[in-house]
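Re-run requested by the PI after the first attempt was lost when the workstation crashed. Everything re-entered from the original request form. Ligand of interest: 2-acetamido-2-deoxy-beta-D-glucopyranose.
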Amino acid sequence: MFTRALFMTALIALTSASPTILSSRQQPGDTVYYLAPTAKAAGTAVDGAVLNAADGGLFIGKNTATSCPSNYLTCGDFTNITAITLTGSSASMDVAVPGGQAAYISGDGAFGFSSPAAGIPPTATQTGFTRIERFAPTETYAAVWFKGSDWLACPVADSVGVYQVRAAAIGDKTGCIYFEMAAIEVGSEEPQAYQYDSPLVVS
Ligand SMILES: *[C@@H]1O[C@H](CO)[C@@H](O)[C@H](O)[C@H]1NC(C)=O
């Protein structure tokens, strides 16, 4: 007989958060940070803007795009804010989907993230992220760098007010706004989304 206890066990297995993807460079003792990224660039159009995951990248001026399987019982529990996890020098998206979604900087400098449990493009770099406590100690956020540099918000053609996030260490600076990535602790180890939508982009 398929007992209620068995059903509950299956339910718990289905709904419990799966561990975030572990990269090979990640050490077991590394602290995991759960961060919601925003832009800090006083006097510019992007100051204070939230960075949202959409189309496999991070954007200002686009809504976060997530999905959740229709047979998954607790989709409504996800906040669906854009959050990344930082461990050691690697970053990934703060998701529940098995296998996780690795974050990376593509060959042309764009912040990207993989499809669930998928690899990253061959020219992308997955390590080089650092969390820097460079703001006042009483603040609940820190800065995130990539290879020792801040970030660029680059206007997206034909989309007024939309900017794509690129690593200043790699990206082309023409027409882009330089900003600090101020990452606010989300204050929870529960994933913020089931998965962020990520059309497979190879660069
Ligand atoms: C979060 O997004 C999922 C789809 O990914 C949706 O099913 C769920 O209702 C959303 N949660 C909230 C709180 O809106």
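Saved to the shared folder this time. Residues 66-68, 75-76, 78, 80, 194 surround 2-acetamido-2-deoxy-beta-D-glucopyranose (CB under 6 Å).
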